[in-house]
Amino acid sequence: MNVSHDKQELMYNRLIPGFYLEKVSQKEADPERKERIRQKSLELLSVLTDRSRPLSRYDEMETNRMVRKAKNCAGIFQRSSFCVEGRNAQLFLRHHGMHRLSDRKLKCLTVIHNFYL
Fold first, then answer.
1. Per-residue pLDDT tens for 34-60?
2. In whole angstroms, how far apart are CA 93 and each of 85, 86, 97, 114, 116?
3. How many CA atoms lie within 13 A of 92 on its CB side?
4. Which domain holds residue 109?
5. Does residue 88 share a domain with residue 78?
6. For 8-22, how does the pLDDT look when each residue is reduced to its tens digit (9 = 90+)?
7. 60 and 99: one domain?
8. Does 22 or 86 have the greater pLDDT score?
9. Among positive and negative, which fits the CA dihedral 49, 51, 54, 60?
């Protein structure tokens, strides 16, 4: 983004993780865990609403630009981490290429996966 060190700190340590956790909390099934994740997200994103925080130094247009970029980065990270999340991701990648896995093929892939683990 070609921004100052202060803005990089805000993006890397508050905005991107906050928006990422916001996305994660929406997908979480366990209500207690979902609430903990949501609270952490709100804590990180509190820089957006608290006018005594560092983000209050920037004008609204710059703040909106940083928020858009942070949401975009959080979305990219979320999508890029999907393909390495275990057996389901491997099955998804295979299914994506073949569009239909037979029950026999699915069982074979499960056995192979468990063998390598």
1. 999 999 999 998 888 776 666 667 778
2. 11, 11, 7, 17, 18
3. 8
4. 84-117
5. no
6. 888 889 999 999 999
7. no
8. 22
9. positive
